[in-house]
Amino acid sequence: MHVLITGAAGFLGQRLTRALVVRGELSGQPLTHITLIDQVKPKVPTSSSLEASSHAIDITLPGAMDAVLDGRPDVIFHLAAVVSSDAEADLDLGLAVNFDATRTLLEGCRLRGLSTTRLIMASSVAVYGGDLPEVLDDLTALTPQSSYGTQKAMSELLINDYSRRGLVDGLALRLPTIVIRPGLPNAAASSFASGILREPLSGKDVVCPVSVDLELFVMSPRRVIEALIYGAEIPGHDLGSRRSLMLPGITVCVAEMLESLRQAGGDEAMARVQHKPDAGIEAIVASWPGRFNNQRANALGFKGDFDFREIIKDFLDERD
Ligand SMILES: NC(=O)c1ccc[n+]([C@@H]2O[C@H](COP(=O)([O-])OP(=O)(O)OC[C@H]3O[C@@H](n4cnc5c(N)ncnc54)[C@H](O)[C@@H]3O)[C@@H](O)[C@H]2O)c1
């Protein structure tokens, strides 16, 4: 089994690589070869007994992915993307990475007859937006309110059509907001969702820019990686003609997140959270769906987090 990962130097790409190497198989087939690509050369796991190759490739350049596709991967995890704020700031860059490169990848599979290759793209909750029902499901119309969400939605449609035509075996998984993301805070509007837990648990002060009754639809990094791998194994006929789905997140309000913080870190951790509302951040985050009916993902066997305490426990276990 040969696996190709785009965006392999990124947050999820590195985690996915490690998880696949530890697992050593997919769908009962031994993993023999893993190809990692990113614009910066991805790290290759040292303990790996399988053949691993790593390449610095800008996937927007003509022909850039030809050589790795000539290796005829059985599974492609397409994780390379520019994230929401960058795609909003630079329309050309967002289109090139988030949409054109997906199309190039699909065409590359078509030209090489990779009709049974499972192509999994990481899509996003950002394909939804604007005036939404209180509870969404997989049939809710895609009405993205950002260039990033639009580029992901267009890629989803194309993956669906190439799969319908039997040119590739595609699947777009819509990721909820991922918490707790380790590392440093970043400029993303969702950064606070990890920050209000990660920073106090690390003894640092943090600002909570949103009201405590704001609801978020979240999933832990561990469950996202498990779901990406599960997505590689699920038979195409189980997916039918709809090749996109929302992963089973859980709904939590900020007050519940902070209560879990208190349980994990005590009053000392809670005292590190200062409440300073930021109308700009609140407006962006409040436009994202907070509640989603996970029926389809559950029926297909995808697993979400049990509750928010499990997410905090995961973070603490990983950190220790
Ligand atoms: N992390 C989240 O909360 C979240 C939520 C929803 C969807 N997603 C999606 O999941 C995927 C992975 O997200 P992540 O958090 O690991 O992001 P990340 O930014 O850490 O990783 C993305 C990687 O893509 C690479 N990349 C960007 N442009 C490239 C180019 N031209 N050529 C080659 N590589 C390029 C970057 O170098 C980076 O390593 C993305 O598709 C993202 O849209 C993430």
Sequence-ordered SSE layout with sheet pairings:
Blueprint: E1 2-6, H1 11-23, E2 25-26, E3 29-30, E4 33-38, E5 51-56, H2 66-70, E6 75-78, H3 84-89, H4 91-111, E7 118-124, H5 147-164, E8 169-175, E9 177-178, H6 191-201, E10 206-208, E11 215-219, H7 221-233, H8 236-239, E12 244-246, E13 250-253, H9 254-270, E14 273-275, H10 279-286, H11 295-300, H12 308-319
Parallel strand pairs: 1-4, 1-6, 4-5, 6-7, 7-8, 8-12, 9-11, 10-14
Antiparallel strand pairs: 2-3, 11-13
Helix pairs in contact: 1-7, 4-5, 6-9, 9-12
The structure holds nicotinamide-adenine-dinucleotide.
Nicotinamide-adenine-dinucleotide (NAD) binds next to helix 1, strand 7 and strand 9.
Protein architecture, described:
- With 320 residues, the chain is α/β, with parallel strands linked by helices.
- The protein has 2 domains: 2-175 and 220-246, NAD(P)-binding Rossmann-like Domain (Rossmann fold); 178-217 and 250-292 and 305-319, UDP-galactose 4-epimerase, domain 1, CATH 3.90.25.
- Helices cover 42% and strands 18% of the residues.
- It has 12 helices and 14 strands.
- It has helices spanning 11-23, 66-70, 84-89, 91-111, 147-164, 191-201, 221-233, 236-239, 254-270, 279-286, 295-300, 308-319, and strands at residues 2-6, 25-26, 29-30, 33-38, 51-56, 75-78, 118-124, 169-175, 177-178, 206-208, 215-219, 244-246, 250-253, 273-275.
- The strands form 4 sheets. Strands 5-4-1-6-7-8-12 form a 7-stranded parallel β-sheet, with helices on both faces. Strands 9-11-13 form a 3-stranded mixed β-sheet.
- Helix 5 (147-164) links the parallel strand 7 and strand 8.
- Helix 4 runs parallel beside helix 5 (147-164).
- The longest helix has 21 residues, at 91-111.
- The protein is globular, with a radius of gyration of 19 Å.
- The two termini are 33 Å apart.
- The mean pLDDT is 94.
- Bound molecules: nicotinamide-adenine-dinucleotide (NAD).
- Nicotinamide-adenine-dinucleotide binds next to helix 1, strand 7 and strand 9.
- Nicotinamide-adenine-dinucleotide binds at residues 7, 9-13, 38-40, 57-60, 79-83, 97, 122, 124, 175, 177-178.
